């Protein structure tokens, strides 16, 4: 592993939550840091999520119960899961590997690793928000899983048992207790699970942009530009850019989220086994006289409704499809119709609908570490739909690995070597 020294130059590719977190962690260790992103900080995948920072996110989609659910999911009728068959068939190796990691042993390794990364990230998030002056954007009152029937609640027993095994604080609510917490939800949920080990923010994109502004105040640089090529030489790396101004670096960090796959293949012929969990969101004005205090996940409807600075944000479930495929409005329309059954929503706001791709590795764990066969090239990518929750922990772990510090969590489950070879 190539060890960095304080004062050396690092270029971070990507200004989402993960990229900015890597840059902040390196800058706080006296590295000379420049971030490149053609869209600017927090403008892509990090902009569109539900803003939840939850320990319950340790549950990957490919859990052991997936096999029993698979026939129903493949029928394409689940509002929280859609797929484009030609793309899935074209990505059959990724799909088979994803299903292969639904075994109990893999599930145990993944949940243990993600729990450590999420817990560490939560601690860092809290510290960084205070130091960046944005602690007011965070709410610490958890989030809710809503169940439309007792049978649906019973079917979630494995998930609740997993959360209990990891010590995640939860509380089961009946309809009356749910009404006390969220009085403006319609009385159609006989059960709910209050995940108390969770926070949320009122604008994920603004949190990332605030972190980027803090990075610049600390002496880091953020450039609205794109890396078009990397060249390795005896002195380090030359990063060629769209603007034509090259950058010299001792270390390069690739934190390009869903764009990482094509970039690494084009530069080095590396084949990342990366799929895309696409998702959409739409904003609404709250109906007059109503409010939502915390994010809620309607387990039957497959959507999350979260209070944001922009209004109520409705986010859809997963669509497996190509990264740049045109949006399919059907899933978003169904989510809106189903959400209106549960909560009085006002008119849509003037904000346009959003579509983003969440990059997912077959084991639902990100890659964090030095790229095999590429000296001083570091990877921080593949965070599926929890990059906002796990970005700060990723940044800290990557900086610790790069500078040879003791790591706060076990880096082994996130090693790039599990899918890449020199």
UniProtKB/TrEMBL annotation:
InterPro entries: FAD-dep_OxRdtase, FAD/NAD-bd_sf
EC number: 1.4.99.6
Keyword Oxidoreductase assigned: yes
A Pfam family annotated for this UniProt entry: DAO
Keyword terms of this UniProt record: Oxidoreductase
Assigned GO CC terms: cytoplasm
EC class: oxidoreductase
Ranges of residues in domain FAD dependent oxidoreductase: 10-401
Keyword Plastid: no
A GO MF term: oxidoreductase activity
Record-given protein name: D-amino acid dehydrogenase small subunit
Taxonomy of the source species: Bacteria, Pseudomonadati, Pseudomonadota, Betaproteobacteria, Burkholderiales
């Amino acid at each position: 592993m190539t060890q960095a020294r304080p004062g050396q130059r690092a270029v971070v590719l990507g200004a989402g939550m993960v990229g900015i977190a890597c840059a902040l962690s390196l800058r706080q260790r006296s590295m000379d840091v420049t971030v490149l992103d053609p869209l600017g900080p927090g403008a892509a995948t990090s902009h569109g999520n539900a803003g939840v920072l939850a320990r319950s996110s340790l549950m990957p989609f490919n859990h052991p119960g997936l096999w029993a659910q698979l026939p129903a999911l493949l029928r394409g009728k689940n509002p929280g899961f859609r797929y484009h068959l030609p793309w899935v068939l074209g990505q059959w190796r990724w799909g088979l590997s994803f299903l292969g990691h639904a075994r109990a042993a893999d599930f145990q390794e993944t949940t243990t690793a993600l729990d450590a990364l999420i817990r560490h990230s939560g601690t860092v998030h809290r510290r960084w928000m205070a130091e960046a002056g944005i602690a007011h954007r965070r709410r610490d009152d958890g989030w809710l899983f809503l169940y439309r029937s007792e049978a649906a609640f019973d079917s979630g027993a494995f998930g609740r048992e997993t959360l209990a095994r990891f010590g995640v604080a939860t509380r089961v609510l009946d309809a009356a207790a749910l009404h006390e917490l969220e009085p403006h939800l319609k009385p159609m949920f006989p059960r709910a699970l209050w995940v108390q080990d969770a926070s949320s923010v009122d604008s994920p994109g603004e949190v990332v942009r605030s972190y980027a502004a803090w990075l610049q105040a600390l002496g880091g640089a953020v450039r609205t530009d794109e890396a078009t090529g990397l060249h390795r030489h005896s002195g380090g790396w030359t990063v060629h850019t769209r603007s034509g101004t090259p950058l010299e670096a001792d270390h390069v960090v690739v934190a390009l989220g869903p764009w990482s796959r094509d970039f690494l293949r084009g530069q080095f012929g590396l084949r990342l086994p990366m799929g895309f969990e696409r998702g959409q969101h739409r904003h609404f004005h709250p109906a007059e006289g109503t409010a939502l205090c915390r994010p809620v996940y309607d387990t039957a409807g497959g959507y999350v409704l979260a209070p944001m600075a922009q209004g109520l944000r409705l986010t859809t479930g997963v669509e497996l499809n190509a990264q740049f495929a045109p949006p399919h409005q059907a899933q978003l329309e169904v989510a809106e119709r189903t959400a209106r059954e549960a909560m009085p929503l006002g008119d849509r706001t003037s904000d346009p609908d959003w579509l983003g791709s969440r990059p997912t590795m077959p084991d639902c764990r990100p890659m964090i570490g030095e790229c095999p066969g590429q000296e001083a090239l570091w990877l921080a990518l593949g965070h599926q739909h929890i990059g906002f929750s796990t970005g700060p922990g990723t940044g800290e772990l990557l900086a610790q690995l790069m500078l040879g510090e003791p790591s706060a969590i076990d880096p082994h489950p996130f090693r790039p070597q599990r899918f890449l070879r020199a």
